[in-house]
Amino acid sequence: MVICGAPYDFFSFIADVSIDATNEDLQLNPPSEEDDLLRRIIDGMGAYTRVDLQPMLMMPNRTHPDLTPEKPRAAKTIPAHFSPVERVDTDDVARIFGHESHGDGRTFFQVGEPLNMDDIPLCLNLPRFVERPNAVFGKTGARKTFLTASSRAA
User: Fold this and answer.
1) Coil, strand, or helix at residue 101?
2) Of 57, 47, 55, whose CA–CA distance to 19 is shortest?
3) Which residue in 24, 53, 63, 78 has its CB near the most CB atoms, within 10 A?
4) Which residues in the chain belong to E strands, given as ranges?
5) Helix or strand or coil: residue 110?
6) Is the CA virtual torsion 90, 93, 95, 100 positive or negative?
7) What is the pLDDT of residues 106-141, one digit of tens each?
């Protein structure tokens, strides 16, 4: 998830999802399954879903062009209250991890997609990847051998 702050966007993961209520009695004594009308009335008003987000990285907001050359960095603060939250899209992932179209065509290598986010490429910066000892783990058919052969060629 991306929390759209000003002047920074906060790239976050979902830490917890829970059901909450405006009244504790509603949690202790929920309406019966037969009471469909009451359940529909309460849903969204008296009972709601709570999502806890953990900001991990911060990067300049797209609306602040003077800050955009900054690279992502660890989140050392939190966004303002009531900041809008959006689902991460292809452009957001490319801002963090790069994209095969960035650089000279040999710098970034697609290794797959984030979990439950089909059609959003996840790339590695190969020159940075081979600077330190590393290991590649993945299930059969995840292109591990292809990745390691490509990183040796870079």
Assistant:
1) coil
2) 47
3) 53
4) 2-4, 8-21, 47-60, 73-74, 85-86, 108-112, 122-125
5) strand
6) negative
7) 688 888 888 888 888 888 888 888 888 888 788 888
